[in-house]
Design a protein that fits this description.
This protein has 458 residues and is α+β, with helices and mostly antiparallel strands. Helices cover 23% and strands 36% of the residues. The protein has 9 helices and 20 strands. Strands 1, 2, 3, 4, 5, 6, 7 and 8 form an 8-stranded antiparallel β-sheet that branches. The chain has a 6-stranded mixed β-sheet with strand order 12-11-10-13-19-18, with helices on one face. It has a 5-stranded mixed β-barrel with strand order 9-14-15-16-20. Strand 11 and strand 12 form a beta hairpin. Helix 1 crosses helix 2 and helix 3 packs parallel to helix 4. The longest helix is centred in the first third of the chain and has 18 residues. The chain is globular, with a radius of gyration of 24 Å. 44% of the residues are buried.
């Protein structure tokens, strides 16, 4: 296996070899105490965040943290403890604390480490190109943030204020091991640039924001492009109005469409399923989306924001079709939730990996303009407010703003409305997915057109 191991001079205080030694100390002490199984993980993160507002430096923050977490099993009783002190005495105390917690914890018949056959061995842990440290100081970061905000102000004289611009450079690494044979770890990075301009004056002010987030700073959008686009979004919302209550098709802008995909993941995750707190109980093998919808998961995408050679338990990850022709082909399960459901882990302890929702009907020319034409007359949503999703029933109700569209063309901006429906109906009612694919964290999806929702206005 070839991996980029943390070395001195890259901003980290500890090497992978040092972390391996700490983890091995913890596991050895757990064995001496009489643990039937144990796991440990050492990690370190560091970064720089700089924000500006109205042409002035506002905040400079540096963060650095470290941790050693230990899990001890006594049969089917489990205890956890952690420390930020890497001394030998502190490691022994932390293992002892986890051991003592396990002693007084009730037995859980499905508690335990992953099965040995599911563990990602060394040759199954490829370098996924996740680590691109950004050698930037606070002055350079401030300069980039100021350029971004200045570009927003320069777009139009109606950009009158700003909530600020920010640059963040973050990196981390870890090493983990447990007594079922797993050993692994890697370094990763995530950098971002954002700005939130305000357009208009008085009661007619409107704000919007935009950002770029990448593992490599070289892949970030230019500060000028981010600032200009954020300003254009704020300007497009000037003179927003309410609309009368109606029922109509709704087009979700691609960043918001990722939230619909996230709701599906939440509803098909092991914890929600075994607790019976999901509107998609017993959906495996059944149609939840229209037949033209597929969802794929690619854990080994090079440089992907959701890429990992193994999950948080050390279980190997893989590529798979989660939804095929509208039918659910797989859930998102950890070893624990899989045992609760009488199933096998899917390598999703810690979450999903690089999901893409696509439609078999999407053509290369299905850009946003074409999606508006498919919408016809209805609502194009670009912002959602609140957390109004009931994952037990699927009921959905959220504040929204966007644009009213007539005959495939934007007529005027709208605000102070609520969109409502049921997630089952919304997922089943996806009419089209745009070619304007947008990556939001570990999810990629174009704009999504839902055939029918309630819109509450004046």
């Amino acid at each position: 296996m070839k991996t980029k191991s943390p070395k001195a001079g890259n901003g980290f205080s500890y090497t992978r070899a040092h972390f391996e030694g700490l983890v091995d100390q913890a596991l050895e002490h757990a064995r001496r105490l009489g643990a039937s199984d144990a796991g440990a993980e050492a990690s370190e993160g560091c970064g720089l965040s700089v924000s500006v507002r109205k042409g002035e430096l506002e905040n400079v923050e540096r963060n650095r943290d470290k941790s050693l977490g230990v899990t001890v099993y006594l049969g089917q009783r489990r205890g956890n403890a952690s420390t930020s002190d890497f001394s030998e005495a502190a490691i022994r105390q932390t293992v002892q604390a986890a051991y003592d917690i396990a002693r007084f914890t009730a037995e859980d018949p499905v508690a335990g480490l992953p099965d040995a056959q599911d563990i990602a061995q060394a040759h199954e842990q490829p370098d996924l190109d996740l680590f691109h440290p950004w050698a930037i100081d606070s002055a350079q970061a401030a300069r980039i943030a100021l350029q971004c905000e200045a570009a927003a102000f320069a777009t139009d004289r109606r950009i009158t204020n700003s909530e600020g611009a920010a640059v963040s450079a973050q990196q981390s690494h870890f090493f983990s091991a447990h007594t079922h044979g797993f050993r692994g770890g890697y370094a990763s990075s995530r950098h971002s640039l954002s700005v939130a301009p305000i357009a208009g004056r008085g009661d007619g002010m409107q704000r919007d924001a935009w950002y770029s987030s990448m593992r490599s700073a070289a892949d970030l959008a230019s500060p000028q492009a981010v600032g200009r686009y954020a300003a254009e979004r704020a300007l497009s919302r000037l003179k927003s109005r309410k609309i009368a209550t109606t029922t109509c098709p709704v087009l979700f802008e691609s960043p918001l469409a990722a939230g619909l995909l996230g709701a599906f993941v939440q509803a098909t995750s092991g914890g929600a399923l075994y607790r019976k707190s999901s509107f998609l109980l017993d959906s495996l093998g059944k149609p939840v989306f229209p037949a033209h919808i597929d969802i794929t998961e690619d854990a080994h995408q090079r440089g992907g924001k959701g890429s990992s050679p193994f999950d948080e338990e050390g279980v190997r990850t893989r590529s798979r079709k989660v939804v095929d022709a509208g039918r659910v082909e797989g859930y998102f399960l950890s070893s624990y939730s899989a045992r609760k459901l009488g199933m096998k882990t899917t390598g999703n302890a810690g979450g999903s990996h690089n999901l893409t929702l696509s439609s078999r009907h999407t053509r290369a020319g299905d850009d946003l303009d074409e999606m508006l034409r498919k919408l016809g007359t209805g609502l194009f949503v670009i912002e959602l407010m609140g957390q109004g999703v009931n994952y037990v029933t699927g009921d959905y109700s959220r504040g929204a703003s966007g644009f009213w569209v007539e005959k495939g063309r934007i007529a005027y901006p709208v605000q102070e409305i609520t969109i409502a429906g049921n997630m089952r109906d919304m997922l089943a009612g996806i009419v089209a997915v745009g070619a304007d694919a947008y990556n939001y964290g570990a999810k990629t999806v174009g704009s999504v057109l839902v055939n029918r929702m309630k819109v509450a206005g004046s």
